[in-house]
Specification:
3 copies of one chain form a homotrimer. The first copy, chain A, is built from 16 helices and 27 strands. Chain A is an alpha/beta fold. In chain A, strands 5-4-3-2-1-9-8-7-6 form a 9-stranded parallel sheet, covered by helices on one side. A 7-stranded mixed sheet of chain A has the order 11-10-12-13-20-19-18, with helices on both faces. Chains B and C meet through helix 2 and helix 4 of B and helix 8 and strand 14 of C. Chains A, B, C: One of its GO terms (cellular component) is beta-galactosidase complex.
Chain lengths: 670, 670, 670
């Protein structure tokens, strides 16, 4: 990842939208046209400058195969343009029309168990279906031809949330596509046999035609097959995206994107998608019942920035208040939506958009909040929406500034997939749990972090954190070893470096890929019982996991005081070249993990930041100025020793800023 | 609902049975014919006067397609008639013969996920199957022709427990029937599109052929489609019933019924079924592990009486002791069966029948209790069965008397269905939970209540209780508003009045249909976390739900003391016309709900009744006398200030009656 | 069961293997051939004398239909023979090659719900498929013809773990086979109707073609059909085994076996399989999170010995440390594998084998432990494997000695199946829970027990324990009654003797089959609520279950002090002929059950054994000497008053042996 170079340009940002973007999904087809006029008037009042339209409009735009009814969309775009609201026009391919299902029932996706999913909700189609792809290309071409020159148009929004809720299809057409994908990857059945380890359980393939997706079977399937199928599914959706994007590019020079869900869609390997969009867009929703949803928000924003290769990105969807699809859809409390929005901007978002402009009266999401709620313009939510519009105007100068970090966390969808396949040593092993545990401690230490892919460039970082990188290729292992040898500080959690890209154990003893850099061998995994805890020296307590660690150069920093590894090393540090590599062999959480991380940070020369708990401070660096976003998630006013002018209020703070309870400030720093 | 007019007549009650009905399901085909003689002798001893036969006998009566073997049934009816036991003859259509499945595999029902259910248990057929319906009509016609003149015959029992355990079928034939039903309801695809809100998520239909049942799909489906499918399923079973009934009526003037499960079969809208039977019959089974199963029993009986439009009804099935299909089938303790039976009679049942006469030796229900248990006539259960027969003879004069109430509870299967569709604001919202919570407090206050349908006549009531009437049509809202305007007292719980009959949100802010009568707007729903509690003023505590209530005329009675709505109104009262409308915006239970209801009752002029806890007193009103049923569910004798003669014992109680622990009295009141 | 007669012979033990067998599954196909040389060298070091090969090698041995590639197996057998390692050669029919699925998709098994299971794991085939059986016979014939004369060969290993994980298939071919099986069993549809009680719920069959497996249906199916289907499934797998065995016997005089999982495969009735193998082999894996897994191990070993009719048996698979398929795969701690191995030998195993020789690098079981783990020969596990090899050499003289017991526990797969069918009086009833509860108390009393089948010979036992023998045939009841009449002592737990072999209730009151011998009737079952407890006299506490017990000769030993049966008998004793029969009508555990068993033992004249808790002592009796295995599962050294020479160390213990913490001794007794 490289910093400091902002790459503006017509092709990477909504064209014609000044400053920060503000708006949301707009579904006027749900309302009589007379309501549209009220909508644009209210958008003007709220300072909305971009809306996403037509996301679910395929059946209206193409009511019969090949017959198009675009008049309403013409009128809508003219109306919006007249009001100064730019348009993010979707290819409406996430919900095929009913007639396509009737003509081509084979577009219905099939589950692992063979259940055929029917239309009736959304995103229910087989990505490998030729009939689906052909019809999707046709509607995309029609919209591109008609609207590429429309002055309202600022951005193309391909499809919607690829991979959610459905990431895989096991139908015969998908099976054929999987075989083609494998043939490209491996060349011969023998190479496939070697990669998948088919001598285990007698699974050898003699011919490509014998290969199928990993359907329901009697017991655990072949993990390499499962892993390749997950890769294939992500790639197959990417192929759908590319096909539509390429159609758009034939007609239009406007930027093209699709909305990601970086931390909430496990079925997409976004590292492979980031470079395919002109601007990265992300959807994020709070987990309403989470204790500290703002930490998850920050992680999502940081990961999105990484997928965007450090460039500014768009928050394409979040919510003004409650969503409707969680078990208990808690409403946001006053000020929370503003804090959420500004926290995204702090971490690199130059756009704040919502699902949705106006609350639906009907359908599955009628209880989802909106900029204009059921309660109308007399409501608190509407007032906060209007105020936020003004805030974003006040922040327009931060547009294009960048975030920098000297701590990196390695994130890897492939490790996530592989680690959580069936028949691992313990069901309590969980990829994301470890990432979140480390991330939360870094957040609490007020350290801004970047996420990086496993083979990414680490040269800018003082400290690299590797939580449960179960799948570690030789190339990734070399990157980490070179980083440490060159003077870097590394901290690795248990169950990292175990298998290669085919889920085959690295030979020679665990953790095969990282034995050298860590200076140790793990002789045996020692999973703990449910709710079992182990004591460490220094008063720390771990759970879930322990290991029989045999140092080969590493020095024990902490030892197990009891449990199955009693007396053995629990946390180690290995000098390796000019740097050092730490290893944490049990599950530490909260203060125990913070304790270890403080030592690691000290070792890395990463200085502590002195701020009150739950006061979030992130810096953005522009060409002419630097900015500090201060978001106060607490119920008390916070004093922060930063000096500058608060862009939100115009107030100068020459001797440190006071941020009210639940409030925020954005300082142009002195 | 109108009272005081008893509608006797050959066509609305088992013909030729005097006094109260006593008996049960009788399955003689499970035993050698020599056992039948013992059966009728024991029936005589127990004073049994009606038995239900042939419910599961189709395969015996029609062993091959179109070939009938009725000899054993002839002999059985003659035997019963000779012993003075009348017959409730079933059309045995709940279990088609094996040969019908083999000839017509398409009669097998299909689940939402596409699983084809095979025969092997019971009630496993597609209600829309022409082959099923044709075969059902044939066996019905055969029985009607043969037995309509048999002197033993008193009543026709169509099928068995329609809708339980299977309420829906998703097969292609059901899909065709669903389309026909929709075409009748809506006339055009455009009307369907409008009703179902298909502009949401791009679900527009261009042609009827594109419509399918709401099969498994990627995520939440269209709620209006789901709701209409539930209506269709109830109507389709009703069409099955009507078809058989109409065949019977061609041959017989005897009354026709089918056994409902008013509180235990969620898939039937009994409001639409009540008028289709000549006499309402109901099956009720205790939830064995419930803390107070007798309260649920009372609710079932009251709801059955409502479905019977206030007329006497038949308890067609209950159990002498344990059932076999619950997780833990606790046995009834001594006296409990008698209390259960008399409590049903108290609330309008003029028949007490059991599943089953004699315990089966084999099959899925061999551990279900019976009038004649596995332990035989030496058992406690048999002795209690004989005693109950004598009790019912002693009560014969209550036959035809009616129950009156001045408190009504609105009950609505459509609200139940709609409220519990996916993606509501909180998974803790539950329709029946709220009805039961209010009902239990009214039961504990010793108030006899009627259930009424949402658009029912409220003119006889001082107080109307509306628990979670999520789906409220404009017509229902008008009934409630007129009732209050005319001087009535209304109490409404949260999440009422939200959507119309298509599950579309009423415009203008929640609760759209009831804003005026309640004098308030709910600006935002505030679902609570799992196990979160909110304090109210007055020391009350709520959970599950809170709301941002904005009064528009209503006066706050209680406020939130903490939680997301702290300071706002929690319980309100609105003067509206000559009456008042109360609103409860959080989930109150137990004493907290009782507290609010006491205030509401005082407002309504409903006087408190002074009786010991768990002593149940219900009055029936006859042409010549009034009766008080006193059922003592406690472990101590109870003194009740009612005077009269106990019909069960003949004892006169001129100064108040003493009812022994666990006992009962039925007073002909002075 | 008869004792004292050891039946040696070429046909009942691996040929050419002296002393105790030591080894494991060997999968050389997973490694380059150059690794094989290292393998045999290490086997030699570990004293391995038998390895199981080719279990999953079908696809390698027959890469295309009818084309065989046996060269690698030739080389392997020669190599092993050269190193003195004998071969247990598998028919590799547990995993058919991919080409067979492609040519015959109908070999894929189908679940009760109709889900077609695809290949991809293991053991995924329909046992009734002609295509599968034909292909299985062909590869078996090929291997038999080629290797029956190979000098390395010692034993044939047919298939692998029949019935696990898949015990049933519901496809059309299985349905046809089920009909043939039923036709053989019943002769006519009328006999089937009588046996299955099809008059219940109108399930009569008019023709064989109407009968299907018990597929998914609307509610509980016919229990007799379910029970017969379970019998059929076990028999159908047995037919697969027999077919392969008979092919082998055409070519070879070597013994044939298949590996059972006596306590872990509920779908096989091993009583019907034991006589079909030349030597009984068993696989056993600890439940890692169990509190006392060594007690379950002992139960498995005792049951395996019973299936072997008291003869020595082979432990075909266990693990050196963790497995990979449990939720949390705890590693064995130092010494535990040795204790496990010796405990199996103590209870009759003359072979100690492991899954697996060398840990896999890939596939679903790469985290399963092995004799040679990922950590290699530098590891603790490898050192313990080598030491165990030496131990077994030291124990060679115990080969062929036998175990004797004077307490028997009746075990019955049919009762297990029937008791746990749907719709029993309580979901808390569980067959194996009761067996384990009684077994654990007997283990803690240091009593060695035999398991016996329900109609087995009881003449050698002083005490017979019958836990929850729900299904009790008249013949089994007669065996028990004769045993007691002849002077035996019997203890029976609740829910025994209830139904006959068709799951039909024995007439005349529960427990129909055992009323006479127990001297009582159970008038009514009284299942308890979840977590409800009942007090008994004497301070004991029961849960789950109570009964209304009516003595008819039996004397109450303990009574219910509260609960639904308060005052009634809880534990009874009936003098019957020359013996006595005890009955326990509630669920007792731990010390409460131990208390009752102590009284029962005293009544039976079974003397208490004085040993420290968790010190396991079992005797084997040889022709020339008797041996005592002492396994110390505690963390302290144990003193045991047995005298002799410890074969493991050569140490003589003339005045009692001291066994170190976690250690073991095997004494040749003086």
């Amino acid at each position: 990842m490289t910093f400091g170079v902002f790459r503006p340009g017509a092709s990477s940002w909504p064209v014609g939208v000044d400053g920060l973007v503000y708006g949301g999904d707009y579904n006027p087809e749900q309302w009589p046209e007379q309501v549209w006029a009220e909508d644009v008037e209210l958008m003007r009042r709220a300072r909305v400058n971009l809306v996403s339209v037509a996301i679910h409009s395929w059946a209206l735009l193409e009511p019969r195969p090949g017959e198009f009814d675009l008049g309403w969309l013409d009128r809508l775009l003219d109306l919006l343009h007249g009001a100064g609201v730019a348009v993010n026009l979707a290819t409406p391919t996430v919900v095929p029309p009913a007639w396509l299902y009737r003509a081509h029932p084979e577009i219905r996706p099939v589950t692992r168990d063979g259940v055929v999913l029917d239309r009736g909700s959304r995103a229910t189609f087989c990505p490998s279906s030729p009939a689906y792809r052909e019809a999707a290309a046709r509607i995309t071409r029609t919209l591109a031809a008609r609207y590429s020159g429309h002055p309202a148009l600022a951005l193309w929004h391909v499809h919607n949330e690829y991979g959610a809720p459905l990431g895989a299809c096991y139908c015969p057409e998908s099976a054929g596509a999987f075989r083609r994908w494998l043939r490209t990857r491996y060349g011969s059945p023998d190479a496939l046999n070697a990669a998948w380890g088919t001598t285990f359980w007698g699974q050898r393939y003699g011919d490509w035609d014998e290969v199928e997706p990993p359907r329901a079977t009697a017991t655990a399937g072949n993990p390499a097959q499962e892993l390749d199928f997950l890769r294939f599914c992500s790639d197959e959706l990417l192929a759908c995206y590319r096909a539509e994007r390429d159609v758009l590019r034939e007609h239009s020079h406007l930027p093209v994107t699709t909305n990601f869900m970086t931390t909430n869609c496990r079925s997409i390997d976004y590292w492979r998608w980031g470079a395919e969009v002109d601007v990265v867009a992300n959807d994020h929703y709070l987990t309403a019942e989470a204790e500290r949803p703002h930490v998850d928000l920050a992680m999502s924003a940081d990961l999105t920035r990484a997928v965007a290769d450090g460039q500014p990105w768009m928050l394409m969807e979040h919510s003004t208040s409650a969503v409707n699809w969680q078990p208990r859809n808690l409403a946001k409390r006053p000020g929370e939506m503003r804090r959420n929005s500004l926290a995204h901007v702090a971490r690199g978002a130059d756009a704040v958009m919502f699902f949705q402009w106006r609350a639906s009266r009907f359908g599955a999401e009628k209880f989802h909040s909106a900029m204009l709620p059921h309660a109308g313009t007399g409501s608190r939510i509407w007032r906060e929406v209007v105020d936020l519009g003004a805030d974003l105007v006040a922040l327009r100068e931060v547009r294009g500034s960048l975030v920098r970090a000297n701590v990196a966390v390695v994130w890897d969808w492939e490790s996530w997939w592989a680690l959580e396949l069936p028949w691992r040593p313990s069901v309590d092993l969980a990829y994301r749990e470890r990432v979140e545990a480390f991330y939360e401690q870094l957040w609490d230490a007020h350290l801004t972090v970047d996420f990086v892919p496993p083979e990414g460039d680490l040269s800018d970082y003082r400290l690299v954190v590797v939580p449960s990188l179960y799948l570690t290729t030789a190339a990734a292992a070399k990157v980490l070893a070179d980083y440490v040898a060159g003077g870097g500080t590394l901290v690795v959690s248990y169950f990292s470096g175990i298998v290669d890209g085919n889920d085959a154990v690295h030979p020679g003893g665990h953790p095969g890929a990282l034995r050298d850099v860590l200076g140790l061998t793990v002789e045996e995994f020692l999973p703990l019982r449910r709710d079992e805890r182990v004591a460490l020296t220094g008063g720390l307590v771990g759970d879930v996991w322990a290991e029989d660690v045999r140092p080969a150069g590493a020095e024990p920093v902490l030892r197990y005081a009891d449990g199955p590894a009693a007396g053995g090393p629990a946390v180690t540090r290995n000098r390796f070249g000019a740097g050092s590599a730490w290893y944490v062999s049990t599950r530490l959480r909260g203060e125990a993990l913070a304790h270890v991380l403080r030592e690691v940070c000290a070792d890395a020369g990463v200085d502590p930041v002195d701020l009150p708990r739950d006061v979030e401070v992130v810096h953005r660096h522009g060409v002419d100025a630097d900015y500090a976003f201060v978001v106060n998630h607490t119920a008390s006013a916070a004093e922060v020793a930063l000096r500058g002018v608060d862009l939100l209020t115009g107030t100068a703070w020459p001797a440190g800023v006071t941020v009210p309870a639940g409030g925020a400030a954005v300082l142009r720093l002195e």
